[in-house]
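Exam revision sheet. Question 4 asks you to relate a sequence to its structure. Input first:
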Amino acid sequence: MKQVSASNFGHLKAHDEQLVRLGLLAERYFAEDPNTCLLKLRQLAEALAQLTASRVGLFSTPDEKQADLLRRLQDHGILPREVASLFHEVRKAGNDANHKLAGDHRTALLALRLTWQLSLWFHRAFKDPGFKSGPFLPPSSPVDPSAE
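Answer key, structure tokens:
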């Protein structure tokens, strides 16, 4: 597996190994299976939302729908509108990947970038307000079978 330090999600190690694992898997699957990448990003975003709710005393059950949890977090002033919007974009892309078997590289790359932004928000909100990340590192490009 890719080195945590070479991942866009390495800073999440300070919170939970599972978060880093999901981020690494999403990056790993990007090139050959963008659908799986999107599923992993959806799982990562759900975990971030649940951890957010847990840290602020608003977690109720892991069975709560992501859309409902995000709405509740926003209603309580925990999620700024921009952050909630990022969560919803990743949620919708993950739903399409899961239910419609959708997922191209363009969508997966956008979702990777959005989930990275969510991870930075989470890290700054709950660990290090002054955290400076490096730039987003796009994963390896998909191999073009016609390039030969």
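Marking note for examiners. Residues 58 and 76 are 9 Å apart (CA to CA).
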